[in-house]
Amino acid sequence: MRILLTGRNGQVGWELLKALAPLGELTALGRAELDLRDAVRLREAVRASNPDVIVNAAAYTAVDKAESAREAAFAVNAGAPGVLAEEAKRSGALLVHYSTDYVFDGAKPAPYVEEDEPNPINAYGASKLAGERAIAGSGCRYLILRTSWVYGPRGANFYLTMLRLARERAELRVVDDQVGAPTSSLAIARATAQLLRPGAHGLYHLSAAGKTSWCGFARAILSGAGLATPVLAIRTEDYPAPAKRPRNSRLDCSRLHADFGVALAPWEEGLAEVTLAAP
Ligand SMILES: NC(=O)c1ccc[n+]([C@@H]2O[C@H](COP(=O)([O-])OP(=O)(O)OC[C@H]3O[C@@H](n4cnc5c(N)ncnc54)[C@H](OP(=O)(O)O)[C@@H]3O)[C@@H](O)[C@H]2O)c1
């Protein structure tokens, strides 16, 4: 199997390098080799590697910055996946793509299922939804995995930010009224490799089992690292940010389990694994 991976230096992309390598011949590109906003070069790169599977782990993920850089977010999160989908359709390749709980508004009082109507409340979510729709509308064979609250041992993420701040500050104040499932980049990459074997396709939710708030997650991170810095629970209103966030980010992942037997471990287990892997 020939695999083309984009976003090789991102949180998920980095773990995919390891998880996908045993599956076949892997070509992995980062931003330095290929800017996804360059549609001509993107098409050339796909055609040159002639993949059976394209795994798109590149994305514009700066949620707050996206509010004032809508065009850039849409170019990477909707334009580029659209081009990859056209190329996948042309060649018959499978396109694996990641999306987000932020396509939902968070008003549902229960975990979101795949059939729930998206209604993004920020520019990042809108750009990711546009990417999903470009792929689904292209007629290519695709696997879209919506995940949530991604963190891991490297990259820009909440986990590493909390560890840094806990060492710098006397106390932390963290939002306690947004609920979701922190999902490790390692677990996402492993599940992706598992799903490539049977050639799964369609739209699926993929996040760690269980739920917590950002505050609960922060306390667990610090506790796992042996840090005693107090973490105070605050409300979303007390932490103004350019982008609105959904209150409920929970994804129901039972369809993935029913169809392919793939389910991620509880978020606490993912955190324990990342804590061991972190530098
Ligand atoms: N992070 C989360 O909390 C979260 C939550 C739900 C879903 N997701 C989705 O999960 C997937 C993986 O996210 P992640 O957390 O691994 O993201 P990440 O760590 O931000 O990695 C994204 C990668 O994409 C690259 N990239 C951005 N713009 C590019 C461009 N124009 N050309 C080429 N490469 C470009 C980045 O390169 P640079 O480093 O050079 O910018 C980075 O290496 C994405 O689809 C994301 O939307 C993420």
Describe the protein in words.
- There is one protein chain.
- The model has no long low-confidence stretch (mean pLDDT 96).
- Strands 2-1-3-4-5-10 form a 6-stranded parallel β-sheet, sandwiched between helices. The chain has a two-stranded parallel sheet with strand order 6-9.
- α5 (123-138) links the parallel β4 and β5.
- The protein has helices at residues 11-20, 39-49, 63-66, 70-91, 123-138, 158-168, 185-196, 214-224, 254-260, 267-277, and strands at 2-6, 25-29, 53-56, 94-100, 141-147, 150-151, 172-175, 179-180, 183-184, 202-205, 212-213, 231-234.
- α4 (70-91) packs parallel to α5 (123-138).
- The chain is globular and about 55 Å long.
- It is built from 10 helices and 12 strands.
- The protein is of the alpha/beta class.
- The longest helix is centred in the N-terminal third of the chain and has 22 residues, at 70-91.
- Bound molecules: NADP nicotinamide-adenine-dinucleotide phosphate.
- NADP nicotinamide-adenine-dinucleotide phosphate (NAP) binds next to α1 and β4.
What level of helicity do the residues show? 40-55%
- Helix-strand topology string: EHEHEHHEHEEHEEEHEEHEHH
Class computed from helices, strands and strand pairing: alpha/beta
Strand order across the largest sheet: 2-1-3-4-5-10
Mean pLDDT score? 96
